[in-house]
Amino acid sequence: MPGPSTLLPMLLDEESLSSSPSQTPISELGPSVTSVQLHLESELDLTPDKPLQSIPSRSSAPLTDAAMWDRTLQRVIKGIVSIKSNRVRGFDTESAGSSHATGFVVDKERGIILSNRHVVNPAPTSATAVFQNYEEVTLQPFYHDPVHDFGFFRYDPKKIKFADVEEIELFPQGAKVGLAIKVCGNDSGEKLSILGSTLARVDREAPDYGSYNYNDFNTFYYQAGSGTSGGSSGSPVLDIHGRAVAINAGGKKKSASSFYLPLDRVVRALKLIQNQQAISRGTIQVEFRHLSYDKLKRLGLPDGIENELRVKRNGGTGLLTVQKVLPEGPGSRAGLEVGDVLLHCHDDRFGGRDIDNFISLWEVIDESVGKSIQLTVYRGKARKIVDVQVEDLFSITPKRFLELGRATIHDLSYQYARMFNLPCKGVFVAAPGMFSWTPSYRSISDFLLTHLNGRPLDSLDTLLEMLPSLTDGERVKYRFLKLGRSESKFDLVQIDRHFSPVFMYSRGSDGRWDRKLMPNPPTVPYTIAVSRGHVPENGLVTIHCRYPYRLAVSSPTFRILIEGNPQ
C-alpha cells in the first residue's frame, strides 16, 4: 500500500481536475478511504491553526509562448483560405490575368472574407477560396476601397459542408513595436506558410510599387522582417492570441522587409457592412506625407510650435504636410499648396481637433462628404485657415467601362490622376484593343483618349453620345496622350462592330458586373467606283490585313497558323 506522502498529491491532483460542481464527502467513499484520512491526519497534524500549503498542479502551470502559439495556430488556420482568382478584363491599374493570394474569414455568419484590394480587384474578377480541408467555395468580390489596400469577398456559408470555419478577430489597437507576430497564408503558392517576426515599425510610408501600378497613400504602414512573397497578399498578421493586428500587403524583393496595412479603416468598413449601411469615403484630392519635426523646421515651422505640440501630443514625432495637390480638385480650389504643414481640423460634427496622423484626419473627412471642413495650416511664417469642400471619393472611382473594338475604355481614375498629377477627368484606355491594330502603335497601352473624330473627350458619357455615329468599318481619327508624356499624338483607327460587338459593363452595389449590348447603327453599304479609262503604270499595291480571330488549320501534311495582325 502506498505511503501517505504518495497518496496526498494523487488526491489533490484529482480534485483540481474535477469539472463537477458537486463534491462527495470523504466519509461516504468507504472504509478504506476513511482509514487513509485518519492516518493522514495523525501523521501530518492537519489542524485549523496549521493550514496545509497548496501543492501546485501541473495542469494549472502557465503555458509557454511556444505552447500558446501552437494552440492559437491550430485554431486560426481554420479561418485562413488560399484564393485563386482570374481577372477577365483589364481595368484601371489592373491587367487581365490570373493570380493566387490569401484571405481570412472575419464574419462566418455572413460569409465575409477580408483580403487586399489588389486581390479583390476593381476589375471583373472570378475567384475561389480553398479552406484548410481543401474544400472549395466560390467567392464574390463585393467591396474594395478606392485608395487603401483592402477589400472584401463574400461566400455562401451554406455551401460549406465539411470545413470547421473559424472567425478571426480584428484587433488594430494591438499593433505596437516589439510585438511578436505570425503571418499565415498562401506564401509562394504553398497554400499555408507560417512566417514569424517582430513588428519593427508602425509609422512607415506606404510602399511604392512603381508607375502604372496600384499604390496606397495617405496612411501609415507597419513593417517587419517576415520575408513574405507572392501569394501572401491578404494574409492576417496575428498576435499570440490569434487576433489580426494588420493585413499583409507587400514586401521587398531583395530583403526580408514586409509591409502590413493597419486595420483601423478596415474595422470601420466592416462594421458598416454588418449594419447594412453605406460606406462613406471622402476626399479633398490632396496627398499628405508625415514628416518629422526636424524636417518640418526646414519648411519654416517655429520652435515654439514644435515645443507646444510635443507637450500636447505625448509621443508624437511629426506632422502631416501637403505632398501633392491635384489640379482642379477641392484642395486646389481651396488654396492648399505643396509644403503646407497641417496643424488643426475643424468640423461641425467633430469640433476642433489637432492633427498629427492620417487616422485623425480621415475620421473627419470620411464623415463629411458633401460638407465643408476647416483646415489650419502653417505656410512659411504664418498660419492660414482654408475651407475645403469634401468630395465623394466614389464619384472619381470608375465602376463601368465600354468595350469598343476589344478596347477597354473608362473614366480616368483617382489612382492614375494622382500618379501623374492630372485632373480627375478624361477618358482612359486600359486595354488597347482596336487602337493597337495600327502598325505604328501596336504596343501602346494606358493612355488618355483626348479627341475622337475631331471632338474633345472629357468623360465616358461624351464617348457614349458619339457611339451611334461610329459605324462598322469606318476609319476615324483620334488624338491620345500617353500617361507620363507631355505631347499628344495623332492616328487613325478602323471601327470594328461586326466581329467585336460593343458592350457596356457596370458594377452594381453588390459587386456584380452587368453587361449591356449597345445597338449598332444602320450599316452603310460599301460602293466601289471602277474607272476603265485609266490604267496605272505601276500596278503594285500594299495590302494591310487584319485577322479578327486567331486561326489554326492543320492536316497530316501541313499546318497553317494565322495569328495577330500581319502587315
Task: Please provide a written account of the structure.
The chain is α+β, with helices and mostly antiparallel strands. The chain folds into four domains: 50 residues, no CATH class; 220 residues, Thrombin, subunit H, CATH 2.40.10; 105 residues, Pdz3 Domain; 120 residues, Pdz3 Domain. Strands 22, 23, 24, 25, 26, 27, 28, 29 and 30 form a nine-stranded antiparallel sheet that branches. Strands 8-7-11-12-13-10-9 form a seven-stranded antiparallel sheet. It has a six-stranded antiparallel beta barrel with strand order 1-2-3-6-5-4. Strand 31 and strand 32 form a beta hairpin.
How widely separated are the two ends? Answer: 102 Å
CATH topology label of the largest domain = Thrombin, subunit H
Mean pLDDT: 86
Which stretches are poorly predicted, pLDDT < 50 over at least 5 residues?
1-55
> How many distinct beta strands?
32
Tally of domains: 4
Helix content: 10-25%
Biggest β-sheet, characterized? 9 strands, antiparallel
Radius of gyration: 33 Å
How much of the sequence lies in strands comes to: 25-35%
Count of separate DSSP helical elements: 11
- Based on the coordinates given, report the CATH architecture of the largest domain: Beta Barrel
| Structural class estimated from helices and strands | alpha+beta
CATH C-level class of the largest domain is: Mainly Beta
**Oligomer category:** single chain
Shape: globular
